C-alpha cells in the first residue's frame, strides 16, 4: 500500500476478501482515519486509463464502462471509495485509486491475479508500484477527457432542461394568448351587438321624438286655428235693446298705452323681473344708469366712465308697490366677448332672474338711432335669437333712451329712425318706450308708465314670464351625466393602465431573472472552459511527444471553439433580451393607447345610453305636459263659449216677435241675431259637437 506523504488521511484495503470470483469484482478501498468522501474527488484508473471519476457529487465513467462501474454511493459518507466492476474479464492491469481534497491527495494501487487461468477466480494483491511521469501525464489527460465529457454532458442536459422549460413557457403563453384572443373576440362580438342594439334604440327614439314633435305641431296649429275662430265674449245684460253693449267688440290692440291696468292684473303681478340688454358705447354703460333710475337713483358719474365687469349684477327693491328685480347684463353684443364668457354670463343672468324674467328691455340710445347704421342692430337680432330663441321676442321691449331734450315726439322719431332700429321695434310687436335720462335721473312717471307697459305686455300672455326651465334642466342634466361619465371613464382607464403597468413590470422582472440565470450559467461554463484552456495550454507547452502534443492541441482548439460559441450565445442572449424588452415596451404603449381609445368609445356610448334613458323621456314628458295644458285651456274656452251661447238663447226666448222683426237702426253694427248666428256657425263649437 502506498500513500502520499504529509497527508491527513490515507487509503488502505481491509484484510479478508482476497479472493474474488464471478463476473462482479469489488476493489476495496477505504479512508483512514474514517471520514466522509462526499466532498472529495475520487478517480479510479486501470493502468493509465481513467475509468471512473467522482467529483462535485457526480460520477462519470469512461467510454465502454457505462453501466459496468459504480461506487458505493451510500458508503461514501463513511469513507468507502471501493470500486464495483461488473462483467469483469482479467487483463492483468493494475488499478490505481486517487482521493483528493483541496489540500491532500492519497493513492492506493491494487491488482488482480488469475491463478486459475480463466476459471473465474481472482486474488487481490496490493501493489507497491511507482508510476512514471509519462504514465501520470496520460492519467491526467484521460481524466481531463472524462471531465470534459462530463461537463459537455452536463451542459447538454442543462440546455435540454432549458429548452424544455422554454417550450413549457411558450406553450403556456400560447394557451394564455389563445384564451385572451377568444375572450377579446367574444367581447368584440358583445360590443358589436350592443352597438347595433343602441343604434336601433336610438333610431326608434328619434322616430318617436319626431312623431311627438309632429303631433305637437298639429295640435298647436289646431289650437291656433281655434283661438282665431273664437269670438270675443258677450257681456251679460238684462237689456233687450240693440245698443252698443249688445255688440261683441273685438279686443283692441294696445300700443304704448298710458291707461291703467285692471286691479286684478296688478295684484297678480306684484313682482316684476326685468333684464337690461344693450351695448356699451364709448365706455359708457347706459344700462347701469337706467337700472339705477328705475329705483329712483340719480345718474352717477361712474356710469359715464369706462368700467369693467366680469358678470351681470342685480338690483332689487320696491317701485310703485311692486317688488322689482333688475338684472344689468354685460355687453352681450360686443364682438370682443368670447363665447365662453357669453355662456357663463347668460347662466348668471338666468340664475339672477329665476324662475324667469317678465321682460327683456333692449336699451337703444338716441344717438345710436340717429347715427348711420353699422349693422349692430342686425347682430342684436341674431344674438337674441341664438341665446333665448324666437320665443323671447314676446317678452322683449325696446327702450329708447334720450339725454336732456334730444327728442320731443318719440313715435315720430322711431318711425323716421334708421331701418335696422325699425326692424327691432317690429320684432318686438311695436312695443317700445322712451326714457329721458338726465343728471337727476328719470322722471318717476316715465318709470311707472314703463312698468305698466311691461305688465300690459305680460298680461297678454298665458305664460306670465319667459322661462327656458326645461332646456336648462336638460342641459344641466346632460352636463352632470357627461361629467360623471368622464370621471368613471378616467377611473376605469387609470385602473386598466395600472394593471397593464403592473403586468409589464412583472414581465420585466421575470425576464430579468431568466436573463440573470442564463447569464450565470453561460459565465460558469465559460469560466470552466477558461480553466481547461489554461490547463491544456500548460500541458501543450510541457509535452515532448509530438503525437500527444497534437492531440492536446486538438483538445485545446475544441475548448476554445466551445468557449467562443458560449460567448456568442451569451451576446445573442443579451441582444435578444434587449429586443424583447423593446418589444414589451412597444406592446405596453400600444395597450395603453388601445385602453384609452376603447374607454373613450365606451364613454360616448354610455353617455348616449344615459341620454336616451333619462333625457329623452323627460323631454317627452314635458312635451305631453304642454299638450295637456293646451288642451285644458281649450276646454276652458269651449265651456265659456257654451255659457255665452246659453245666455244668448235665454235672451232670444225673452224677446217678443215684434222685437225680433224690428229693423236695425245702425247697419254698421251687427245685431243680436247676427251675433247669435255667428256663434252657432262657430267651427270650434261644430267641431266639439261632432266629437
TrEMBL record:
SUPFAM superfamilies hit by this protein: Immunoglobulin (SSF48726), P-loop containing nucleoside triphosphate hydrolases (SSF52540)
Name of the featured protein: Golgin subfamily A member 4-like
Occurrences of domain Ig-like (ranges): 19-109
Gene symbol of the encoding locus: GIMAP5
InterPro entries cross-referenced by the UniProt entry: G_AIG1, GIMA/IAN/Toc, Ig-like_dom, Ig-like_dom_sf, Ig-like_fold, P-loop_NTPase
Top-level taxonomy: Eukaryota, Metazoa, Chordata, Craniata, Vertebrata
Gene Ontology terms for molecular function: GTP binding
The keyword Repeat is annotated on this UniProt entry: no
PANTHER family found in the cross-reference section: GTPASE IMAP FAMILY MEMBER 6-RELATED, GTPASE, IMAP FAMILY MEMBER-RELATED
Keywords recorded for this protein, A-Z: Coiled coil, GTP-binding, Nucleotide-binding
PROSITE patterns per record: G_AIG1 (PS51720), IG_LIKE (PS50835)
Coiled-coil regions, chain positions: 146-229, 471-594
AIG1-type G domain boundaries: 269-475
Family membership: Belongs to the TRAFAC class TrmE-Era-EngA-EngB-Septin-like GTPase superfamily. AIG1/Toc34/Toc159-like paraseptin GTPase family. IAN subfamily.
Keyword Signal (UniProt): no
